[in-house]
Amino acid sequence: MAALGWLTPRRRSATARSVLAGEASAEAARKSSQEAQETPAVAEQEPQFPVVGDDLAAAFFDLDNTVMQGAALFHFGRGLYKRKFFETRDLARFAWQQAWFRLAGVEDPEHMQDARDSALSIVKGHRVAELETIGEEIYDEYMADRIWPGTRALAQAHLDAGQKVWLVTAAPVEIAQVIARRLGLTGALGTVAESVDGIYTGKLVGEPLHGPAKAEAVRALAAAEGLDLSRCAAYSDSHNDIPMLSLVGHPYAINPDTKLRRHAREKDWRLRDYRTGRKAAKVGIPAAAGVGAVAGGTAAAIALSRRRR
C-alpha cells in the first residue's frame, strides 16, 4: 500500500502528476548535485587579456576623447595663450572649437585643420626645447585632471602584462610624448612639425597623423618592433580611426562616436563608455557643464584682458 501512497487524495491542491513531477525533479537535482561534487563544473570564462608575458603584443591608444577628455591641441592652445603666444580672439576660437568637440564627441575636419594651422603659425620661430618645457607645464595645468580613469586602467593592464603601450594621435608629437611620459607609457606617435636647428619653421613633415596615417604609423612601428598585430590591441573613440582599429586582433571602441559605435557592433568589437549620459548619443548635463566651464574661462580671460588695457 505504501507504494501506492501517491494515489491517496491529499489535502493540498497538487495533483498526482504534479507530485510525481516534483519528486522526479528533486531526485534529478540531488543526482546532479552529487555529480557536480565529483566532477566540478568549469565555468566558461573570457580568455585573459592582455596576455601576461606576450612580448609580441602591444597596445595603441588614440588620445583625444579616448585617453583624455577633449582635444590635446586645444588645451595646448589655452596654455600658449596664458604665456602670451597669441591674442584673445585666437583663444575665443580655440574655446569654441573645444566646446563643439565636447558637445559633438567627434572631430570636425575644418576645426581640426584650423587648429593645426593656428598652432603652426603660433610656434613658428620658437625653439623645440622651449615648447617641450611648456608642454610639461600645460599638462599639469589643463590635462592631468582630464584623463579618463577607465582608459588609464586599460593602458596599465597592458603595462602590467609586460607589454609596450603607445599613444597614437594627431596632436603634436612633443605634446603626445609629454602625456605618454607622465602616464608612464612607452611612447607616442604624433604629428611632426618641421624644425631646423631646433627651431620650428611653421610647416609639417608630411601630413597630420590622422585617419589612415595612424594605421600606417602603427603598421610601421609594429614591423620595427617585431610585433604580431593580430595579438595587439587598439583603442579609439572616433570612426576616423577604423583603419587603425581594423589592423589589430583586439580593437576597442572607447567613448565611441555614433559611426564607430555602429561599426563596432557590426564587427562585434568590444565597447567601453566612460562618459556620463552617453554624450555621443545625447548631450547631457555633464557635457553642458563642461562647455560652460570653457566658455566661462574664455569670458574671464577676455574681461581680464580688457581691464589691463
What does this 3D model show about the protein?
With 309 residues, the protein is of the alpha/beta class. 51% of the residues lie in helices and 13% in strands. The protein has helices at 16-38, 72-82, 88-104, 109-123, 128-143, 149-160, 173-182, 212-225, 242-247, 258-267, 285-308; strands at residues 58-61, 164-172, 187-191, 193-196, 199-204, 233-236, 250-254, 270-272. A six-stranded parallel β-sheet has the order 3-2-1-6-7-8, with helices on both faces. A hairpin with a 2-residue loop joins strand 4 (193-196) and strand 5 (199-204). Helix 3 (88-104) runs antiparallel to helix 11 (285-308). The longest helix has 24 residues, at 285-308. It is globular. 35% of the residues are buried.
Layout of helices and strands:
Elements: H1 16-38, E1 58-61, H2 72-82, H3 88-104, H4 109-123, H5 128-143, H6 149-160, E2 164-172, H7 173-182, E3 187-191, E4 193-196, E5 199-204, H8 212-225, E6 233-236, H9 242-247, E7 250-254, H10 258-267, E8 270-272, H11 285-308
Parallel strand pairs: 1-2, 1-6, 2-3, 6-7, 7-8
Antiparallel strand pairs: 4-5
Helix pairs in contact: 2-3, 2-5, 3-11, 5-7
